[in-house]
Amino acid sequence: MIRAKELHFSYTGTAPYILNGIDFEMLAGEYISVVGDNGSGKTTLMRLILKMIKPGTGSIASSAQRTGYVPQRNSGADSGFPITVHEMLNSYRKLLKVPDKNAVRENLKLVSMSGFENALTRTLSGGQSQKMLIARALMGEPDLLVLDEPSTGIDSASREDIYRILKALNQTKGMTIISVEHNLRAAVSNSSRIYHLSGGRGHICTPEQYVAEYMNRPGEFGDV
């Protein structure tokens, strides 16, 4: 699904590189969490996967036919603009030229948001806003879903609900998921593999291997 080979990147185009010789492979149907300290290159790798930026040297390619993107929650859903959930999602449906007019209702059902069609987006809780963004990303029926810290700024019950939704999309619908994570417990609980970035380089491992290597480090685990 995604393959990076000898990938180098810096925003200046010269050393020092944020990503330094990255080799990374993600298979269709996997759920991979990308973890690492602030400044380790997690967001940069995500932007490269989404083709928002181009690699300096090396290559990164995706075989996904359609990619859905869920940004952090503060990306427009919380603006004061008076728009309903249905209006926001339906405008995205039209932008993607999705012919099924029931797609809004169906995607809201997938994220446990049935009945919120007429709610103003500015009245939603943090968890509800994040679910709406996931529903928006699902509008084009993507085979790859990319998320940027999906549990940031929401309560624990909403976090559990969101990860339940993501796991169901991965396991029951076969959707490939790659999530930039600060929530390490969620990464360990939900991922098929974890990609740890440090010093510009990456290390791929199973959740069990990650726990064995990192769980005893003070402060290593983030939010529950």
Question: Can you tell me about this structure?
Answer:
The chain is of the alpha/beta class and 224 residues long. The chain is 32% helix and 24% strand. The strands form two sheets. Strands 5-6-7-3-8-9 form a six-stranded mixed sheet, with helices on both faces. Strands 2-1-4 form a three-stranded antiparallel sheet, covered by helices on one side. The protein is globular, with a radius of gyration of 18 Å. The two termini are 30 Å apart. Mean pLDDT is 90; it is low at 220-224.
Topology:
Layout: E1 2-9, E2 19-26, E3 31-36, H1 42-49, E4 57-62, E5 67-70, H2 85-95, H3 103-110, H4 126-137, E6 144-148, H5 156-173, E7 176-180, H6 184-190, E8 193-198, E9 201-205, H7 207-214
Parallel strand pairs: 3-7, 3-8, 5-6, 6-7
Antiparallel strand pairs: 1-2, 1-4, 8-9
Strand elements, count? 9
Alpha-carbon distance between the termini?
A: 30 Å
- The number of helical elements comes to 7
Output the structural class. alpha/beta
What percent of residues adopt helix (DSSP H or I)?
25-40%
The description of the largest β-sheet is:
6 strands, mixed
- Order of strands in the sheet with most strands: 5-6-7-3-8-9
Poorly predicted runs: 220-224
Gross morphology = globular
What is the CA-atom radius of gyration, in angstroms? 18 Å
* Succession of helices and strands: EEEHEEHHHEHEHEEH
What do the pLDDT scores average to?
Answer: 90
Q: Approximately how much beta-strand content do the residues carry?
A: 15-25%
